[in-house]
Amino acid sequence: MKTWILRQYDYHVWANRKVCEYLQGLSEEVYRKEIVSVFPSIYEAMVHIYVIDSGWLSFFNAGGVSEVSPLYLENLKDSIDRLVTETEGKRIEELGDLMDDLAVRFRLFIEEHENLETVYPSGDFKASCLDYIQHMVNHGSYHRGNVTAMLRQIEHPGTPTDYGYYLYTLSH
Questions:
Q1: Which pLDDT value is given to residue 26?
Q2: What CATH number does residue 87 fall under?
Q3: How far apart are CA 98 and CA 86, in angstroms?
Q4: Per the structure, how many domains does the chain have?
Q5: What angle separates helix 163-170 from helix 2-24, to the nearest 10 degrees?
Q6: Where are the alpha helices (DSSP H) in the chain?
Q7: What range does the domain containing 79 cover?
Q8: Is 79 exposed, middle or buried (0-12, 13-18, 19+ CB in 10 A)?
Q9: What is the per-residue pLDDT for 129?
Q10: pLDDT at 70
């Protein structure tokens, strides 16, 4: 199972990196352009992926959340605000560097975690580490799809990041 989830996670990191590299080839005006879409801009969609991935690593490092209390929700909001503020004014290259640094720390967590079937509470809900990581990968895929749609909306092609293409790149 560890090999499988590492491959899923590596795909997630590869796809995020591929989008960031693609966006680096466009002007800052393009990825910061305000668009009527799921996110106010392409940049903010990428920030969202970064913030949520960061949140998942914090969740795991804390051993989950036993009670989703008002204090927990307030601290979560503060953490999200801090991460968003950390990205303000940064170019996509710098956001990519933040994502790469997080990816190293997250991958190390997965590699060092002895039992990925460990169940983590999220209030009354409980799921395995594997399930949460798969959810995170799916979440990233969903929002990278938003980025592609937003790019097309402003007449720019996207870049391929689907899992099949990732597997193809591994063999070539």
A1: 97
A2: 1.20.120.450
A3: 10
A4: 1
A5: 100
A6: 2-24, 28-32, 42-61, 70-87, 92-112, 129-153, 163-170
A7: 2-170
A8: middle
A9: 96
A10: 96
